[in-house]
Amino acid sequence: MKNNKKRPPYKIFLWALGGFVLIIGGLLVGGFFWLSTSLPRTAGEIVLGGINGPVNIVRDNRGVPHISAADQFDAAFALGFVHAQDRLWQMESMRHIGAGRLAEIVGPKGLRIDRFMRTLGIYRLAEAQYATLSLPVRQTLDAYARGVNAWIESHQGTLPIEFIFLWHRPEPWKPADSLVWAKVMGLKLSGNFSDELLRARLAEILGAEQIRQLWPEASGNGRASNAWAVAGKRTLSGKPLLANDPHLGFSAPVIWYLADIKAPGFTAAGATVPGLPFVVLGHNQNIAWGVTNTQSDLQDIFIERQDPNDSSRYLTPEGSEPFKSRHEVIKIKGGGEEIINIRQTRHGPVISDISGLGLKKQVLALSATFLKPGDKTPEAFFKLNRAGNWAEFLDAMKNYQAPQENFVYADRAGNIGFIAPGLVPLRKSGRGRTPQPGWSGEADWTGYVPFDALPRAFNPPSGRTITANNRIIPPGYPYFITDDWAPGYRARRIENLIDAGIQSPASSAAIQNDILSLMVRDLKPLMLEGIAGGGGYEKVLARLRAWDGEMDRNRREPLIFTAWIRELGRAIYADELKGLFPRYWDYRAPFLISVLSRETQWCDDVGTVEKESCGSRLALALDKAMKDLARRFGSNKEKWTWGAAHQARFRHQMFSSVPLLGSPAGLKIAADGGQFTLNRGAGHLANPVNPFEDIHGPGLRAIYDLSDLAASRFMIATGQSGNMLSSHYKDMLEDWRDGKYFAIGKPLPESAPALRLIPG
Question: For strand 337-344 and strand 425-427, is the pairing parallel, antiparallel, or unpaired?
């Protein structure tokens, strides 16, 4: 008998739903396995052209490659290969930014950066630079490029997800793609043209003395890093110690990539940068080195005067000259292009032709050391990687052009020292604080500080050398370098901790991870003593008085105090600065100290008839800070911890604002430290959404004991891989936050994955 009973509708729905879930699940699983083919091959053999002999690449449990090659050029090839394996998207985005070709990848939203980079002509300089380098350096760049291209061509899986999402295929890597990275870093680290423009705009509403007060000496807050070397007479081992933690903006992944490289006659290990064939920070078999930024003023804005009879010309001390001009075509993803006309004067490119960078229709040209031809900086790193003593180290530094940096040195023979190499302009007049007239020649650059006169020290009697972006020149030094030294808080703290006892790798690690803010100890008493009344916040004030100034992520005081500083800035100088206030708004600790102790006139609100005191401004700022914290974090003050607001955030360059991808691609973790601590955790107080987040700090920490360089300790902030599917994308994040380290120079177990590159 036939069963004609029909299935209930809900069962049909469940069957359909189950089938749909299975299909979606299958697609997701299949998609995951397809995307996982973008991960690097780390074992077996690959036959490749472009190398002279076999190369072994063994990776440790952190994903750090240990390269053993038959010659130094094959080692450069292998470094290019592993960089491409782990960080190809980072390299691809970097070279497109440097070349002013970002719009080719991301469309119109990349045009602002492209216009700026094309105007500077950075990639054109990199292409011309290659031909000026020595044969060994060109061979190294060539070999590195072959290694990058070998991975692109031999990789049998899909490319990393960024390429898929943007439907982009990388072009072959070229040596100029490597050289442009140093130019981009020169732009980021070499000066103050944005401050020059800000001071020029402020001059329209403030007097010269007010502007001077806004920038007291040693008030530079932006760029930061720590490095020091200690002589053997002050260490447990009897040999020097060198420590370095460069501070840069955070990203996922960070800029640094660890590697250990060996070839006959060549050994180097430490922090590389994907895109470059050198160890940038690290050690070889004889010396170790670290770097901090000098804070030099290496950029000047010149106001050019157009020829009144011919707008295609401008005036110089020798008469009228034509603007050099060229057209550049910016291709835009999706079709279309933009043609821009770029002008250049004898001082440099005209940046005022870019929207948003002008001053009342004036023609502004940028002079910068990183834009000067004849740059041999790659020679410096090539020689530095191979230097065996102080004399060879200095010989390498003679080639270094931009930006000026403090290179700290130590060697196995027991010597320590530092030098600040790089071009430092000599000016006919002025100190590069504001845009200067270009037509008169009165502030022109006349040359550069001689190499032998650059700041340096070798085996100082103190047995230590310290650089933390602080003033490094003695009184009476005959040349101007900058007025924007960083406040001496970090340098003073390092000095105090080193002088407290005999040093070891463990004590160096403790110094790098120190979270005591000397800025708090300087500014807090002025704020607490100056406030007019408690305003109902007596318990808060008592808590701040008892606080020792440690920027501990588990405490409330760092958050309350930082919020108070933020609102104090608004209360003191927003009225004078008007619409330019957000451009200046920051911690500005040296300025606040001068206001609360000397320049009290800033506390008066110029928009009111009454005369306000600093005490009333402090009370108003505290009240606003407490209300702002309640709005952000709720009324339960137990949850107002520094770590709740001070998250170290590593944004993915491409996916940070993309739904579903932004969260897994970007990384964050509650972190200790603050703007002025050794374990730096800097934020941007003018950010209305996340003013307390940690966006700038030590993406790398390194400690070198010259008694055993193979035991040198390292840690980077995210992980070795830039591939979100890799187990090494974020496996160092917690250890970095917690101040841990690992060695990369010790022998690896036989079970470690080994890849062998065979010449084809």
Answer: unpaired
The answer to whether residues 759 and 69 touch, using CB atoms and an 8 Å cutoff, is no
Distance, in Å, from the CA atom of 244 to the CA atom of 281, rounded to the nearest integer, reads: 9
688 contact partners, CB below 8 Å, separation of at least 6:
none
The greatest distance separating any two alpha carbons of the chain, rounded to the nearest whole angstrom, comes to 112
Is the sign of the CA dihedral 552, 558, 560, 566 positive or negative?
Answer: negative
Q: Which of 608, 601, 570 is nearest to 213 (CA)?
A: 601
Q: What angle do CA 493, 707, 459 make, to 5 degrees?
A: 55
CA torsion through residues 258, 259, 260, 261, sign: negative
The mean pLDDT values, 10 residues at a time, for the chain of 760 residues are 61 63 60 84 97 98 98 98 98 97 96 97 97 98 98 96 94 98 86 89 96 92 91 98 98 98 97 98 98 95 97 97 98 95 98 81 94 96 98 98 97 98 97 95 98 98 98 96 95 98 98 98 97 91 98 98 98 98 97 98 96 97 98 94 98 82 88 98 97 98 98 98 97 98 94 95
For residue 40, give every residue at least 6 positions away whose Cβ sits within 8 Å of its Cβ, in sequence order, or none: 82, 85, 86, 723
Contact 464, 228 (CB under 8 A): yes
What's the rounded Cα separation, in Å, for the pair 106 and 101? 9
Distance between CA 490 and CA 243 in Å, rounded?
14
- 9's CB contacts (< 8 A; 6+ apart) are none
pLDDT given at position 221: 85
160: CB partners within 8 A, 6+ apart: 38, 88, 89, 722, 723
| 661/724 Cα distance (integer angstroms) | 10
> Tokens standing for 241?
């110690």
One DSSP character per residue, 347-413 reads S-BB-TTSTT--STT-EEEEEEGGGSS---HHHHHHHHHH--SHHHHHHHHTT--SS-EEEEEEETT
| DSSP state at residue 503 | B
What letter would DSSP give residue 233?
A: G
Burial 103-140 (b: 16+ CB within 10 A, else e): bbbbeeebbebbbbbbbbbbbbbbbebbeebeeebeeb
The bridge status of strand 287-293 relative to strand 464-467 is: unpaired
φ, ψ (nearest 5 deg) of residue 419: -145, 150
CB 249 within 8 A of CB 222: no
Q: Which residues of 301-320 are buried (b: 16+ CB within 10 A; e: fewer)?
A: bbbbebbeeeeeebbbeeeb
Q: Which two tokens stand for residue 601?
A: 């006139």
The single residue listed with the structure tokens 């292009």 is 337
- How many angstroms separate the CA atoms of 253 and 716, rounded? 10
